[in-house]
Amino acid sequence: MAKGGGSCAAAVAAACGRFVVSTAGRIVVGLIGSDIEASFSPALHEREAQMQGLPYVYLTFDLGRLGAAPEDVGQLVDSARRLGFAGLNITHPCKQLVVRHLDRVSGRASLVGAVNTVVFEEGQAVGHNTDWYGFEESFVRALPDAVMDEVVVVGAGGAGTAVAHALLTRAAGTLRVVDIDMARAEGLARALQAHYGSGRASFVAPSELARSLAGASGVVNATPVGMVGHPGVPFDPAWLRPDLWVAEVIYRPLETQLLRSARRLGCATVDGGGMAVFQAVEAFELFTGIRPDAERMLKHLDALIAEHEPASAV
How confident is the model at residue 19, as a pLDDT? Predict the structure, then answer.
């Protein structure tokens, strides 16, 4: 059920509590999305801000808890702007929906067609995409020598689009895009072809995924399937093989069922932890103007996982 602008403003104000009394002297940011109560983003940002000596407050606005629809993201952004927020992170399912509600977007965000970071500058809402950098930096660190002849990306939403661009600007020869929404997969493939060349990308029907994986060098799961609140696997793990590398964008849990199956086979893997940290590194700098310590933020994430996810957790 869509909320009116006043209801959204009231919901944001209620969630902000005492911090809404005055944002003066504080850097107040937030996260908008669904099923985000388990997110480490607030603690990740706030721990680094504490080390930087910054008065930093990071709040969450879960659509389900607010009784808001994904389409209400524009009203939520406007409410946060009026309340004096420095900016917002945007996650599933709003990364693409939010774009039309912004005053302008960065070059990368425009190319991807998805925004995961909004900064309020002189009254304007400016969109950025830090997922691109987050995945690229994480992947290169984890698998610097990965074979990239043909890569399959499962999921053509905001995260999948950022991942696709990161892979094609690095070293991927060809990219196959798969999504249960065939129109969305086709749209992404066509956009990639227009930018990188017709031979660099194509879309694949879900029924053809097993065949695509059989000839691929690696696969990235860019869907929410496997994360907290969305258990399961995005495709049959029996389609994996030992010489296929497997990457995730999910970090809660850090070891998804897909990654666990891949590691049992001996596949090289990349979990979503690095992407979560490096996209946060760039977002933190956009919010504050200060470059955080990336290595320290990686340690923050390790500590958060140790606190919240026992080693036996799946």
Answer: 44
Q: Are 165 and 222 in contact (CB under 8 A)?
A: no
**Could you give the residue ranges of the DSSP H alpha helices within 2-130?**
5-16, 41-52, 63-66, 73-82, 107-112
> How buried is residue 143: exposed, middle or buried, by Cβ count under 10 Å (0-12/13-18/19+)?
middle
How many C-beta atoms lie closer than 10 Å to residue 87's C-beta?
25
Q: Output the furthest CA–CA distance in the chain (Å, rounded).
A: 58
8 A C-beta contact, residue 66 and residue 11 = yes
| Type of residue numbered 290 | I
pLDDT of residue 278: 98
| pLDDT tens for each residue of 55-112 | 999 999 999 999 999 999 999 999 999 999 999 999 999 999 999 999 999 999 999 9
Measured CA distances, 82 to 5, 73, 205, 229, 267 (Å): 12, 14, 44, 32, 49
Q: What is the 3-state secondary structure (H, E, C) of 93-154?
A: CCCCHHHHHCCEECHHHHHHCCCCEEEEECCEEEEECCHHHHHHHHHHHHCCCCCCCEEEEE
Burial of 150 (0-12, 13-18, 19+ CB in 10 A): middle
**Could you tell me the domains of the chain?**
5-129 (3.40.50.10860), 132-272 (3.40.50.720)
Question: Rounded to an integer, what distance in angstroms lies between the CA atom of residue 124 and that of residue 101?
Answer: 11
Which residues in the chain come in under a pLDDT of 70?
Answer: 1-24, 310-314
Q: Which of 3, 47, 92, 95 is catalytic?
A: 95
3 given a catalytic annotation: no
Taking CA atoms, 216 is separated from 164, 234, 282, 291, in Å, by: 15, 16, 31, 37
In the sheet that holds 56-62, the strands lie side by side as 56-62, 27-33, 87-90, 117-121, 124-128, 104-105
